[in-house]
Design brief:
The chain is of the alpha+beta class. About 40% of the residues lie in helices and about 20% in strands.
């Protein structure tokens, strides 16, 4: 697409990781029975008064600081009025003209170059409920309302229109998610709706500065879906413009199964939400001393951690990207290095075997039975010659399955490495007698034959023979 420039802005809604909702004491636990976590306040019953959860404000400020925002000294809440069955009060308590955080940015790498995307604002609001649709049009369609989610604190993080490709959008979201997870202010579980994204996209002729007509794409429940939807939408708009048509300002739905966006509703006229100040929630005066206290409590953020890992541990940047993908993985790595100070070896096992097993089981590190001490203990057994690297993979799978230490697994399975020369010589005799062709090849200078013979010895010993010792014995005997 050489004739048009893509312009993208993203609105991310992140559920705040607090035990109770933003204006009442109801639980935020996911997976409860419909309407189990509700009360007169989050159901919007007459005569109830909201009481602000201080922790939700703290977490929003924390997020703003991590994203380089200015923190408001004075902020207030507003009523955003619209009528929908999942909004029992017929208005949403949100923030309009005085958000908690504004004028920030996020930086990340795109094709080897650092990219900065501005953060227009981060504001705090309450979530709406959820409609569960059932039936069919022929059977007179109906819906159920579940208000468990109603009143859970949301941070809305609104980017500037600084993103210029679907890939940049995905990388921006990935960095934003990492920051939220490192701060531990949201669990960012997109499958459970903890992190949701709406994307605005428009095109303009290359070299111009006036924005084109934008379309908003909803129902994006993964970063892959965001990228695919924006790729489709960019091509759809480009085709319209090339044919002399006009892009309509509208909201569109991403159909994952068909890989297309579908019109939902027109937005030719800006929706008038009739904002006005929330009279039941007092304005916020944010003291500098509180902001400073929150700032002092910020953890090491992903970008800083990546740079430190490269400098401190001397491991390649591509390894570091994987190791810092989640805070849990980064913490696991550092804990393991404390017990086994060979960072590259630890990195290889985490990125290789550990991630492979986690992905195969579809679980996160915190759900795994493997601890950093498990891995460090096994690596020590490799180093002191108790087990070979090949046997270690079997040992690690057993550790992953049972949570037993490497020492116990090796003892129970009889996997101690054979280092006794007499024992290995007996196996070598057998392999030499059974493979005369390979022996002749080796003596004729075909060095690949040594690998075959070593492999046969390892097979006979079920991988327990020390491979270096096997190699040495074969060379002494045959060369």
């Amino acid at each position: 697409m050489t004739e048009y420039e893509i312009v993208i802005g993203l609105e991310v809604h992140a559920q705040v990781l607090t035990d109770s909702k933003v204006f009442c004491g109801c639980s935020t636990e996911f997976g409860a029975s419909p309407n189990e976590h509700t009360c007169p306040i989050c159901l919007g019953l007459p005569g109830t008064l909201p009481v602000l959860n201080k922790k939700t404000v703290e977490y929003t400020i924390k997020t703003g600081l991590a994203m380089n925002c200015d923190i408001a000294e004075f902020s207030k809440f507003d009523r955003k009025n619209y009528f929908y069955p999942d909004l029992p009060k017929a208005y949403q308590i949100s923030q309009y003209d005085m958000p908690l955080c504004k004028n920030g940015y996020i930086e990340f790498w795109v094709n080897g170059e650092k990219k900065r995307v501005g953060i227009n604002r981060i504001h705090l609001e309450e979530d709406a409920g959820k409609l569960v649709h059932a039936g069919s049009i022929a059977e007179s369609q109906y819906s159920f309302a579940d208000y468990n989610r109603s009143g859970i604190a949301l941070m809305e993080i609104v980017s500037e229109p600084d993103i210029h490709s679907p890939e940049e959008a995905r990388l921006y979201l990935n960095e934003l998610k990492k920051i939220l997870e490192y701060l531990e202010v949201s669990d960012c579980n997109m499958e459970e709706g903890s992190l949701r994204c709406d994307a605005n996209i428009s095109l303009r002729p290359v070299g111009t500065v006036t924005f084109g007509t934008k379309a908003e794409v909803k129902n994006l429940n993964s970063f892959r879906a965001v990228q695919r939807a924006l790729e489709f939408e960019a091509e759809r708009q480009a085709d319209l413009l090339r044919e002399g048509g006009k892009v309509i300002q509208e909201t569109r739905h991403w159909d994952e199964s068909k890989g297309i966006t579908i019109p939902l509703r027109s937005k030719e006229e800006a929706h008038d939400y009739r904002y006005f100040p929330e009279s039941d929630v007092p304005p916020l005066v944010i003291k500098d001393s509180w902001v400073d206290e929150i700032k002092r409590g910020l953890p090491e953020l992903p970008a800083v951690k990546r740079a430190r890992f490269v400098n401190e541990y001397g491991i390649p940047e591509q390894d570091v990207e994987v190791l810092t993908e989640t805070k849990a993985m980064a913490d696991f790595f550092e804990e393991c290095v404390k017990d086994y100070n060979e960072p590259k070896t630890v990195s290889n096992w985490l990125i290789g075997e550990f991630l492979r097993l986690l992905n195969a089981e579809g679980i996160e590190i915190k759900e795994s039975k493997v601890t950093s001490r498990h891995l460090a203990g096994m690596l020590k057994l490799i180093k002191d010659g108790t087990i070979s690297g090949k046997i270690a993979k079997t040992v690690f799978e057993e550790i992953f399955k049972t949570g037993k230490t490497a020492e116990i697994v090796v003892k129970e399975k009889g996997l101690v490495q054979i280092t006794d020369e007499d024992a290995i010589n007996d196996v070598v005799d057998k392999v030499i007698s059974e493979n005369p062709g390979a022996v002749e090849d080796l003596k004729a200078g075909k060095n690949k034959a040594i690998g075959f013979l070593v492999g046969q010895v390892m097979k006979e010993t079920r991988g327990r023979a020390n491979p270096q010792l096997v190699n040495e014995i074969l060379r002494k005997r045959l060369l």
